[in-house]
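Title: Prediction job returns without error message
Component: structure pipeline
Severity: low
Priority: P3
Assignee: unassigned

Description:
Job completed but the reporter wants confirmation the result is attached to the right record. Sequence as submitted:
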Amino acid sequence: MAKWKCGTCDEEHDEIPMDISYARPQHYFEIPEAERDPRAWFNSDSNADVCVIDGNLFLVRAILPVPVEGGNEFRHGVWVLVDEPDFRKSATFEGDGSDEPPFKGRLSSEVPGYRNTFLLPVEIQLGPPGQRPSVRLKPSKHLLSTEQREGITMKRVHQLVRAALPDMFE
C-alpha cells in the first residue's frame, strides 16, 4: 500500500486510513455540472459541514461509525438529507448535543463497497462541540446496516478502503 496524504492534517501516512470522507453530497452530483455553483451553497469551500441545494434540500455532514474487531472503529464521513428545522438545529446548535433527541434523515452518499446506499433511512445524533453528528442506519438487511450493528474485520476495512481509494493500492 502506498503512502497517502490526509486531507485534514495535510500530512503523509503509511497506515491504512480508518476514516473515509466525501467532500460533496450525492445530491450535488445529480445537478448538471454547469449549474452546480449557482444551485448549491456550502458553508466552506473545503471541509464543509452543511449544504443547501435550490433553497429546499438541506444536507449536513456526519460520521457513520462501523465497529472493527479489536475495539477499533472505521468511520465514513457521509452527507445526510434532513428536514429544514433539523438542518437549522444542527447548523446552529451550541454546546453538547449528545443528550438531544436524534432526528431522521436519509443518506446522500453512495458509500463505496456497498450497493445502493443513496437515501437509506438514518437517525442523526448531535454530539460534543466541534464534532460532526453521528449517523445510525435504521435496522435493515442492507449490508451497511448489518455491518454497523455487528462490526467488521480489518480485512473488510481493507476492502472498503480499496473500493473508495483504489489508487492507494497500485
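Comment from assignee: result matches the submitted record. The two ends are 7 Å apart (CA to CA).
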